[in-house]
Amino acid sequence: MPDAFAHCRALVHTADPDRSLAAMFAPKPRRDALIALYAFNAEVARIPAAVTEPLAGEIRLQWWREVLEGRRPEEARGHPVAAAIVDVVKAHALPLHPFEQMIEARRSELAARPFETLAELTTYAVDTSATLMELSALILARDCGVNDLVFAQPAGISVAMTGLLRVLAAPTNLHGAALPDAISPADLRAQADSAYARALPLIAAARPELTAAWLPVALVPLYLRALDRPAQEPPRGPDVSAFRKAWALWRAARNGRPAAP
Question: What does the angle CA 63 – CA 66 – CA 69 come to, to the nearest 5 degrees?
């Protein structure tokens, strides 16, 4: 499907603009592969909110499992994101287990109350955001070992917790996101802060070619500062301008590490 990667670029530009921008700092031959990965993530991430019955979500997630396993080749060729991610998995010899982790984590969202404790939410952040960073790193450098990926867990947790805080603070919370009684926004903020602090020295020691994999975490301080701003009238939410985000990403990529919190 010749337009599969173009479709992925358009999808990620809209659904995940931060990762779309971060991918531009990857070497050009790797960019489309990263974008295809982020498009796959966007597709499975929106399933829990798009269905009204858990069974419908289970069916859609199972379809993605079977696509990645090569059990639906004809259907995959007819779906631009599926066609692109199947090509990327083959071209970069990506392991399937991380994809299974991501899909299983989304399956847990189909439950009426998917997370009851902060530990459960943290595990979810590792299985989604951190795993996505690991796969990004494997695209950027196929010979990555376990020690090359140690930055992904704290960086992914920080990105995920910050993202949830932003959703909760948004003026229009379309899906009515809320935290269980056992978790407070202060808990999420503490997790985001501590994970970011743990990630910094690991990122500073990471291989230079992996920069685009960790780069989204460079936006965490901007978003957390936006969350600390006094309430505005009318409320605009904890957003950051595109220019400031681009500048933060450029500076982090140039320095080889995100800014101090």
Answer: 155
Interval 55-85: pLDDT, tens: 999 999 999 999 999 999 999 999 999 999 9
Judge whether 5 and 36 are in contact, CB under 8 Å: yes
- Residues whose CB is less than 8 angstroms from the CB of residue 130 and which lie 6 or more positions away in sequence, other chains included: 152, 153, 155, 156, 157, 160
pLDDT value for 170 = 76
**Residue carrying the six token digits 């899909």:** 103
Give the tokens for residue 63. Answer: 């379809």
CB 233 within 8 A of CB 36: no
Q: Please classify residue 57 by burial: count the beta carbons closer than 10 Å to its beta carbon, then call 0-12 exposed, 13-18 middle and 19+ buried.
A: buried
Instruction: Please state the φ and ψ torsions of residue 12, each to the nearest 5 degrees.
Output: -70, -35
Mean pLDDT computed over 133-150: 96
pLDDT at 191: 97
Residue 1, pLDDT > 80, answer no
Kindly report each contact of residues 241-249 with a partner whose C-beta sits within 8 Å and lies 24 or more positions away, as own/partner: 242/17, 242/21, 245/18, 245/21, 245/219, 246/21, 248/218, 248/219, 248/221, 248/222, 249/21, 249/22, 249/25, 249/215, 249/218, 249/219
Nearest to 62 by CA among 135, 42, 15, 54: 54
pLDDT of 261: 82
